[in-house]
Specification:
The chain is α+β, with helices and mostly antiparallel strands. 24% of the residues lie in helices and 31% in strands. Strands 1-2-4-5-6-3 form a six-stranded antiparallel beta sheet. The protein is globular, with a radius of gyration of 17 Å. This is Thioesterase domain-containing protein. InterPro entries: ACOT13, HotDog_dom_sf, Thioestr_dom.
């Protein structure tokens, strides 16, 4: 492993540790609201890996089971639930490049384009891998791929365009 690869691996390990700490220490999904629709999903989700990338192309890898609450009437993971999961996970990918004055607030959605390819059933373990494709000071595009862990089959993909909501600083 080259020095550059070693440095990147250390940065990624530190990023993963920082993100896991942040996700565990904050009350991100209110425990006081039993109706919060992502509360149970979030409790059973693991952040497997995080990378800050070389050129602001950070990525995350999430792992979670398909839960009964997110099934449609034919007992498959509902499209709306998939869109919500893509929205949350792709949005968090901005954490990999955020710094003071740059994507501190993670932004807000402009568009979320979904493609549904296969079904997922209750109890199956899924992986949602996200990657920043393009990012600037005002807009970003993050891609997500949801796949079945057991066979690698792609369940759905997303393309999430986001707008930076950071408070602009006055120019001196």
């Amino acid at each position: 492993m080259s020095d550059l690869e070693t440095k990147q691996a250390k940065r990624d390990a530190a990023l993963l540790k920082r993100m896991r700490s942040h996700l565990q220490s904050k009350d991100l999904i209110s425990r006081h609201d039993p109706n919060q629709y992502l509360q149970r999903w979030f409790a059973e989700t693991t952040l497997v890996s995080a990378s800050s990338g070389q050129n602001s192309d950070g990525s995350l890898d999430w792992r979670f089971p398909v839960q009964k609450e997110y099934l449609n009437f034919v007992h498959q993971l509902a499209g709306g639930a998939q869109a919500a999961l893509h929205d949350v996970c792709t949005g968090w990918t901005l954490f990999t490049v955020a710094k003071p004055g740059y994507w501190e607030s993670f932004g807000s959605s402009r568009t979320l384009n979904m493609s549904y390819l296969k079904i997922a059933k209750e109890g199956e373990i899924l992986r949602l891998r996200t990657k920043i494709v393009s990012i600037g000071s005002r807009v970003a595009m993050i891609r997500g791929e949801l796949s079945r862990e057991s066979d690698g089959q792609l369940i759905s993909t997303s393309e999430h365009h986001m707008h930076n909501n950071d408070v602009s600083r006055p120019k001196l």
